[in-house]
Amino acid sequence: MSWLRPRRASPSADTANAAPEATAAGLSLVEAARLPASDVATRLASSADGLSSAEQQRRLAVYGPNAIRSHGATPLAILWRQLRNPLLILLGAATVTSFLVGEHTDALIILAIVALSVGLGFFNEYRSERVVEALHASIHHRALVLRDGKALPTDVTDIVPGDVVVLRAGDLVAADLRLLEARELEADEAVLTGEAMPRTKDAEPESGPDLVELGLRSVAYMGTTVRGGSGVGVVVKTGPRTAFGKIALRLGERQPVTAFQRGLGRFSTLLVRVTAVLAGSIFVANWLLGRSILESALFALAIAVGLTPQLLPAIVTVSLASGARNLARNRVVVKRLISIEDLGNIEVLFTDKTGTLTEGRISFQSSIDATGAPSQEAADLALLCAAGDSADLAASGNALDAALLESGKPPAGWQQIDHLPFDHERRLMSSLVRRPDGQAILITKGAPESVLARCPTAPAGAKAGLFGGGARVIAVATRPWSGGPQCALDDERDLQLDGFVTFVDAPKGDAAAALDKLKALGVQVKIVTGDNPLVAQTVCRSLGLDPGETITGPELDRLSDEDLLARMPATGIFARVSPEQKSRIIGAERKLGKDVGYLGDGVNDAVALRDADVGISVDTGSDVAKDAADIVMLGKDLAILASGVLEGRRIFSNTMKYVLMGTSSNFGNMFSAAAGSVLLNFLPMTPTQILLNNLLYDTGEMTIPTDKVDLELLERPAQWDIRLIRRFMMFFGPISSLFDFMTFAVMLFVFKAHGSLFQTAWFTESLATQSLVIFAIRTRRVPFFRSRPGLLLSGGTIAVVGVGLLLPYSPIASWFGFSPLPAAFLGILAAMVVIYLFLVEVGKSLFFRQVKVPRRPVELWAPAPAIRSLERVASRWTTRKRPRRPASPIAR
Hints:
The protein has 892 residues and is α/β, with parallel strands linked by helices. Helix content is 47%, strand content 14%. Helix 18 runs parallel beside helix 25 (638-679).
């Protein structure tokens, strides 16, 4: 290992006096790439035998373990995410206030609601985190490190700057290494760059003004894989200081708020404003009417709690937990439950190309002669021009040679005499071989530009059309040999072009069908790749995906934010982009008001995964990517993702049913209570009765997550529409209040009721109407006839109404101030319920006739097979057998 022999000359004073950790910390990867190998070793205070065990322990104490960050399901972090919900904060304040004023029963009711919601959310999300944590715990890596002059397998976390690491085919690079020796070394850097092709490495110093940290030829990066050859490198950076680690550190920043969370926040703001106005007015009005401050405050507090859909967090959590179980059956692990809602609402999906749209491996495509005609000769010669004996190609580790070997065996009877390995400068490799007849020839293969430059007689336009197909191309040329048993670089001249061999990363067989499903769901797919733009365009066209415009990384750097926003709608491919550029692309799409999903599995995808509304990774991806993702798929398949989108939309649709029903009914009932408290000389319902009413009502609606969803609500993304919720509340709330006032009139003028009997009658009517209205509000179709509710929803709703009717006759009626109701009132109540539901149906037709929702352009509709596929997937959630022309979803 001559590269590490001690120098005879004394080091400079600066180097000699500097501590090893100081010089190592100040050595960047770019600087290390520019320096000769021996200078890098000197700067890192290393030696030919590597570090001693004592020195390794000392440096380990200085630099820390060679680890990015430990993964763990932290209970406090998950609990905090549950408690940040604005609705829970409002309910918590109501609980504290009730305790302070002595209404312990009311406080316990509210506290039970809060505990149920938080407990369900915490349990399901913590369980998902534990699944991913177990996946991480099963992975351990070791590297071959020179320690005390011996090559020893060492845990990667114990590696420090200055360690000397031996690289072999199949090894996972454990740190950022400056290569000191490299023999036909190829590294798969897809985890960092997204490129399917491995990159050739060498130990020569690099030059030029445009060197950047990611993409150095003389550096082997942490997290990449050795695909072929061998090498030795000295560790320059470890842990969070590596290129891999710097990306991971950005993931520690606060995660952006998703579209669903923004919508929930706006909805909570609406509730707070309405509650503040109504509850404040009620408090003032009751106090002015002569009621005590405590009584007025308790009634106003009950109104405030009554206006709040208390179990919305629980409804959302139960829906998400149910969706997580359904997705688990489709081999999808949900890390963050709230992300399922966002998955259903994504309008744009950014995905890498390799392994998602393509097989993720290089395969042989064609062999042609110099004129472009099919010919096996070029492939045979390329097989013979390989490292080592041609019969041992399978062990060479070279991806192109391995792909060639799959297409056929090397010609028999040929013998390799000498070999010139590939290097980055000349972009060629050559083999001196002897034919079966004893004649020797020199075979050269490599980049077409480099080979053609050495072929004086190559036909004009020999490579025309080869690159438009987006394939990887190598040229093959030969010349007769009359020299000795060895060849040199100078012999790569006066070649005769024999042809070309092309390779592709073939599209997946089921990718086109998966793209059709996503198109039918209204999800626009855009490609973000580190690969060549021509390759990405070719793959898209072969799958029937219109790529639109293409923007490359260098072009993206030249675009201002305003120019990028202007070009985003028409651009479908972003090629040769860096991790920072991916994050900028995601941010630009979100600024356009789109809900964005991102599918990626590499370290270079991690920041984009965090910045998207929903980040999706796969179990074969890097640990950093899986940490950053919200959802982890146990297979890189867009068809699985399409099923997840459907599940997310089902959950969102059911959530919106509760929101619309709860806000409109609660607003109507609380408006009636407010008016009644002013017009009557007694409270129309006590605070405890109001809270019990809401608890029973919400308990029945806990079955909403199991409800069926109409097909048209699954065919397009949906979003929170606060304006529609506000209009819905103001439109249907007064209809509910109308029947409350009818109940008031019946009890006052027909039954001459006051106090307990009046309050019991309104409690029963209020619970019946606001519970049964779910059957009308859950669909825009005619209920039962054209849209049947789920069995659990039907049974739960009817059971709650039954409990409300039986409570006044039960032994515990006095606990809540109830009195038995006259039989005649029950008959009147039944009639009012029927009329109420009829009026809601009429109002529903009028309301949605005025709601204008733009339809999707015709060109976004998928072909008939994709629509049929969508219908089959959705059939378990709908009773319809044929898809209808989509109507606007209720939550849009």
